[in-house]
# Entry
Amino acid sequence: MANIKSAKKRILVTQTKTARNKAIKSKVKTYIKKVEAAVAANDAAEAKSALTVAISEIDKAAKKGIYHKNTAARKVSRLTKAVNSIA
# Structure
């Protein structure tokens, strides 16, 4: 355990940020799964509506620095490609 005050603060701040990042990543994964489930069910309308929500969440996560911009772009691209394949 850290003894220096600044080191103790860094531990607390890191824990807070880690929890925030995990929550946002989990949220993004949930929306991605919704899109993939709609694609698997061949439900084009549901897939498109789920895609718009998923893209929004992925972009928000990238904006906050949780995902690198290229990672976010790759995720969006793959989801869009999957939705377009059933359209």
In short: The CA atoms of residues 31 and 54 lie 5 Å apart. The two ends are 56 Å apart (CA to CA).
